[in-house]
Design a protein that fits this description.
Elements lengths: L2 H6 L2 H18 L8 H16 L7 H13 L2
Length: 74
């Protein structure tokens, strides 16, 4: 697969490819992928918002479908 192939892919296929790449990275590293500091900061902020009731949660399958529907509409 080349960069040109990736550029030509529909967004839904690119998302599937990203998920596959991430799964591969996690498996290859034994789940010890070092994340940037700002990822932890965003997570902490979101957890605070969840604890305070400012945020709600949805099951991953539901959230993924909602994201895919938003992408298709653009």
């Amino acid at each position: 697969m080349t960069t040109v192939d990736i550029v030509a892919m529909p967004v839904s296929e690119k998302l599937r490819l990203m998920e596959t790449l991430w799964d591969s990275l996690c498996a290859q590293s034994g789940g010890n992928v070092e994340l940037p500091t700002w990822h932890g900061e965003v997570l902490e902020q979101r957890l605070r918002r969840l604890a305070s009731g400012e945020e709600s949660v949805a099951p991953w399958n539901e959230a993924k479908e909602r994201i895919r529907a938003q992408i298709k509409s653009h």
